[in-house]
Amino acid sequence: MLEKLVKDSKALEKAIAGEELTYDDGMELMSYDNIYMLGAAADLIRQKSVGQQVTFAASYYMNYTNVCAASCQMCAFYRKGTESDAYTLTAKDIEGRVTMAKNLGATEVHIVGGFHPELPLEYYEEMFKTIKKSHPEMHIKALTAAEVFFIARLTKNSVKEVLTRLKTAGLDTMPGGGAELFHPDVRNKIVRGKCSGQEWLDTIEQAHNLGIKSNVTMLFGHIEKPEHIIDHLVKIREVQKRTKGFLTLIPLKFSLDNTELEKKGLVTSESASTYDLRITAVSRLMLANQLDNISVYWVALGKKLAQVALTYGGNDLVGTAFSEEIYKAAGKGTNSSIIELANMIKEIGREPAQRDTFFKVLKKF
Ligand code: SF4
């Protein structure tokens, strides 16, 4: 049925036939004017790859420090060490937070922070060892590839040495942050003091090769053009073909409030909901056959639009995001309960399932 309706798009025909899309196909989809048809094709591919289930993890977010040597223009979270609301958690603080996470039913802690210019590698090792000592069953998803790259530079160790030591200390997987957009034309305008796109990709590939799987993100809805989105997706697909180490792609809608991009007037409004849906659909279609999970980050989209995005190729809601602070700093409400997420999924006629970090189903509702 759908095959007959998409005769005006070679790229959609190929996607429905199960063929891999090229960069040019991706560019065609970024300007294809029938957003409903794009969504229907992405929804079909989602159905074929993962069925009706929509997953989410019970996840507790922890930001160990907001002190950051970088000063990215799209970030509302960072502070300089001298500011009154700058903070850095101790291993003891972190242990207390993990106990809280456990009491909330979290199965993973998601730990990220700024690029603290003074913390030694031992700080991170102690953090992970302390967590594992008191809560050996808690999954530690921590430190983006950008943070690992920064720590390696700061401590004059190789990326491989840092990753190996962190893994020995208890690191299980890595979150997908810091990827932003890899293309230097846009990356150099939205980040300041962060690794290049290629350095992020090299770091994550080394992690995958050491057996540390990860997520990957894509920050959209700011100053990018379609070619930057497609470039990003193609680069993710290339790494995934070599390592199979990505667990999910999480497209992140740029949140405007309190960022330098907003203050300088470089971005004056957040992206339109139709653009957000296009990004979800194109992500699904470009990564088909390589990455089964396309996550919809409800914290950034809002719960109602997140439900729609689940019908445009998404199959995962990321998680409960207990205690999230990064989007909160940019004006978004971030808490949700397991039952609330399950109900959001039921409302659109899909099947909710709580998963672990590796997408193994733990509980159905
Ligand atoms: S995005 Fe990360 S690296 Fe950039 S300023 Fe914010 S906390 Fe620092």
TrEMBL record:
One of its GO terms (molecular function) is 7,8-didemethyl-8-hydroxy-5-deazariboflavin synthase activity. S-adenosyl-L-methionine binds at E180. The lineage of its organism: Archaea, Nitrososphaerota, Nitrososphaeria, Nitrosotaleales, Nitrosotaleaceae. This is Radical SAM domain protein, CofH family protein. PROSITE patterns: RADICAL_SAM. [4Fe-4S] cluster binds at C68, C72, C75. Binds 1 [4Fe-4S] cluster. The cluster is coordinated with 3 cysteines and an exchangeable S-adenosyl-L-methionine. Keywords: 4Fe-4S, Iron, Iron-sulfur, Metal-binding, S-adenosyl-L-methionine. Its cofactor is [4Fe-4S] cluster. Residues 54-292 form the Radical SAM core domain.
